[in-house]
């Protein structure tokens, strides 16, 4: 089947490449000609493990191509996916649908034959009906259907998530559209991955409800973590004890510096906004958004305490800037709140991240980027572990402690423990949801 994919951002590119790997003929379209040129040269503009090889394989097989020309992409296509951005709209927190609607209008003006217009971008409930109206208005003669097909890809594991999904959700209005969608996902269907066919509104709602639920789960454990610190409980033990209950499950119960990324913050805000628009404020989701902000602020308080009340004149080494490992994405990463607070407070900040530097250089002004974690911590007063990259999971803590001016570790991902830190010779260790320790240094004791 020939498929067009509009938008070669994260979702569009991963989906386009994976659909071509299913054996479909996929043409990816983007307005950004320099991006298309890069893709045509075989360069993948994002960091996602395995994506470059999969792209090369399918381009070589003649199933995957890139263009700026929508007419060429839509020629003979039976389905066109809209995978353009839906950023948070300035002012009201709602999803900005202008890119989606512009794509819909262009499809209407370009398509010649029956086509299924599939929305892959995350869009509020009701958007697919709006897409339908927009297309009908722009070209009353076009024969088409709309479908909602939300994505559930995790960055860093996107190919695996696409190829072995927990489920595929397809919202349709007609049998004809359902058949086209089934054909698209046939390889998954054959391997018995659940394909859930719903109405348009339910498909749209599933995506938001799932993300808001996951954000709630994380925020819940983060709030419990704060209470664990006050009461002497250990949140890792608490999570394990909770997660063994099959009804709760052990995933997404890792306490940390607050959720970030391209989806959870944006989607929770948009869902809350939809609730308000319908006169039904979603109190839980609204609380999750507020508590997540509060959690990020608490992390800063924790770091101030570890710097004896002020960042001024301190050197702080930050390990990890991306919102999670295995991505170069820094959208709404906790580092964007924490690092400016360090810099603003007068600290000299060095950052080390295996993939984050390119984006980070723009987003985190006033910091020095260092490739090697051991160089990063040299003469520092505090090291802050902010992203749990594998590279940071087995650091030689003794070597780190030896290189620091005052060996103090803020482990905001709970990778290490008080025992590890004491054994390595740290003077202070704090994590999230576990009681840490602060040992006065010989220098401080002498000064008193
Ligand atoms: C998420 C969803 O998982 C995916 O289904 C959806 O379609 C897009 O949004 P992603 O943003 O790639 O994917 O990241 P995810 O792995 O879900 O993590 C999101 C955030 O939550 C990160 O900041 C991560 O550090 C944080 N997190 C996750 C925790 O703090 N604790 C956890 O236990 C899990």
UniProtKB/TrEMBL annotation:
UDP-glucose/GDP-mannose dehydrogenase C-terminal domain residues: 317-418
Transmembrane domains' residue ranges: none
UniProt pathway: Nucleotide-sugar biosynthesis; UDP-alpha-D-glucuronate biosynthesis; UDP-alpha-D-glucuronate from UDP-alpha-D-glucose: step 1/1
GO molecular function, one term: oxidoreductase activity
SMART domains: UDPG_MGDP_dh_C
InterPro entries: 6-PGluconate_DH-like_C_sf, NAD(P)-bd_dom_sf, UDP-Glc/GDP-Man, UDP-Glc/GDP-Man_DH_C, UDP-Glc/GDP-Man_DH_C_sf, UDP-Glc/GDP-Man_DH_dimer, UDP-Glc/GDP-Man_DH_N, UDPglc_DH_bac
Keywords of the record: NAD, Oxidoreductase
EC number: 1.1.1.22
A Pfam family recorded for this sequence: UDPG_MGDP_dh_C
Catalytic activity: UDP-alpha-D-glucose + 2 NAD(+) + H2O = UDP-alpha-D-glucuronate + 2 NADH + 3 H(+)
EC class of the enzyme, as a word: oxidoreductase
Superkingdom in the source lineage: Bacteria
PANTHER family: UDP-GLUCOSE 6-DEHYDROGENASE TUAD
Family: Belongs to the UDP-glucose/GDP-mannose dehydrogenase family.
Protein name in UniProt: UDP-glucose 6-dehydrogenase
Source organism of this protein record: Roseovarius rhodophyticola
């Amino acid at each position: 089947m020939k498929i067009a994919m509009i938008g070669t951002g994260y979702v569009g590119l991963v989906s386009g490449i994976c659909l071509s790997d299913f054996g479909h003929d996929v043409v990816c379209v983007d307005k950004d000609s320099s991006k298309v040129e890069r893709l045509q040269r075989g360069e993948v503009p994002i960091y996602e493990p395995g994506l470059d090889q999969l792209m090369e394989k399918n381009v070589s097989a003649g199933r995957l191509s890139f263009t700026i020309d929508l007419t060429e992409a839509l020629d003979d296509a039976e389905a066109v996916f809209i995978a353009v951005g839906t950023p948070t709209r300035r002012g009201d927190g709602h999803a900005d649908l202008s890119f989606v609607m512009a794509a819909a209008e262009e499809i209407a003006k370009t398509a010649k034959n029956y086509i299924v217009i599939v929305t892959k971008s995350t869009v509020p409930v009701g958007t697919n009906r709006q897409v339908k109206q927009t297309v009908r208005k722009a070209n009353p003669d076009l024969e088409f259907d709309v479908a909602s097909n939300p994505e559930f890809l995790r960055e860093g594991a996107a190919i695996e998530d696409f190829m072995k999904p927990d489920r595929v959700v397809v919202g349709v209005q007609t049998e004809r559209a359902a058949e086209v969608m089934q054909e698209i996902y046939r390889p998954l269907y054959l391997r018995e991955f659940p394909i859930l066919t719903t109405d348009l509104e339910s498909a749209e709602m599933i995506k938001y409800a799932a993300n808001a639920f996951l954000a709630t789960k994380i925020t819940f454990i983060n709030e419990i973590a704060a209470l664990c610190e006050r009461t002497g409980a250990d949140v890792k033990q608490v999570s394990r004890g909770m997660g063994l209950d099959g009804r709760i499950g052990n995933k997404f119960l890792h306490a940390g510096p607050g959720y970030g990324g391209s989806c959870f913050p944006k989607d929770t805000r948009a869902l809350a906004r939809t609730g308000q628009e319908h006169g039904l404020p979603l109190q839980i989701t609204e609380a999750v958004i507020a508590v997540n902000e509060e959690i990020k602020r608490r992390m800063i308080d924790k770091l101030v305490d570890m710097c004896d009340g002020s960042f001024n004149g301190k050197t702080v080494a930050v390990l990890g800037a991306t919102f999670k490992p295995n991505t170069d994405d820094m959208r709404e990463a906790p580092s964007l709140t924490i690092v400016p607070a360090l810099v603003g407070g007068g600290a000299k900040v060095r950052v080390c991240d295996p993939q984050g530097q390119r984006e980070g250089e723009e987003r985190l002004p006033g910091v020095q980027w260092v490739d090697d974690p051991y160089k990063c911590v040299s003469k520092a007063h505090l090291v802050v572990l902010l992203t749990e990259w594998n590279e940071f999971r087995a650091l030689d803590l003794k070597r780190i402690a030896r290189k620091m001016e005052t060996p103090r570790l803020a482990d905001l991902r709970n990778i290490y423990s008080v025992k590890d830190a004491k054994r390595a010779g740290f003077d202070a260790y704090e994590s999230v949801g576990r009681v840490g320790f602060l040992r006065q240094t010989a220098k401080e004791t002498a000064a008193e």
